[in-house]
Amino acid sequence: MKTNRKILLIVITLLIAFAGCKKYPDGPTISLTPKKWRLDGTWKIEQVLVNGQDVTTSYTSLFPNYTMELNSNNSYTKSYGGSSADVGTWAWNDSKKYLLMTPNSSSTATNFEILKLKHNALWLSETDGNDVTETHYVPN
């Protein structure tokens, strides 16, 4: 009986300790799946916010078939529908708090803050001047 209590006490202590250690503002608090595995896959837009205002309908009407494929070999493809695509490489930045994406056609990278990274949700934020664009993705 004492062993069960000790194990329970250890588990509760670990849960409390990890509760304050989440890397991304919107979660998850803890995950046993490596970040690279959660990022790997094809994503489609669920919601787009610019400066807090929902502009999803405007964005998805411009790019109705937009997908973003992130591969575990650090390559990506953003497809806008038809033959239009952006291909490049991605890398972690600042202890995996940011996703740095560099198109093959340019040496200029874009730094996205990762707000949420789960197997079924990817939220990225990009700041351009005074504008902050937050894009919520779901698996395609």
- Average pLDDT score: 84
Give the number of domains. 1
Spans of at least 5 consecutive residues whose pLDDT stays below 50 are 16-21
Major β-sheet strand ordering: 1-3-4-5-6-7-8-9
Cα separation of the termini = 48 Å
Structural class: alpha+beta
Instruction: Please write the string of helix (H) and strand (E) elements.
Output: HHEEHEEEEEEE
Main sheet record: 8 strands, antiparallel, barrel
CATH architecture: Beta Barrel
CA radius of gyration is 18 Å
Quaternary arrangement of the chains shown? Answer: single chain
Residues in helix, %: 10-25%
Strand portion: over 45%
CATH topology heading: Lipocalin
Number of strands: 9
Folded structure, characterized:
This protein is α+β, with helices and mostly antiparallel strands and 140 residues long. The chain has one domain (2-139): Domain of unknown function DUF4822 (Lipocalin, Beta Barrel). It has three helices and nine strands. The protein has helices at residues 2-19, 35-39, 56-62, and strands spanning 41-50, 53-54, 67-70, 75-81, 84-93, 98-103, 110-118, 121-128, 131-139. It starts with a helix and ends with a strand.
How would the blueprint of this fold be written?
Layout: H1 2-19, H2 35-39, E1 41-50, E2 53-54, H3 56-62, E3 67-70, E4 75-81, E5 84-93, E6 98-103, E7 110-118, E8 121-128, E9 131-139
Antiparallel strand pairs: 1-2, 1-3, 1-9, 3-4, 4-5, 5-6, 6-7, 7-8, 8-9
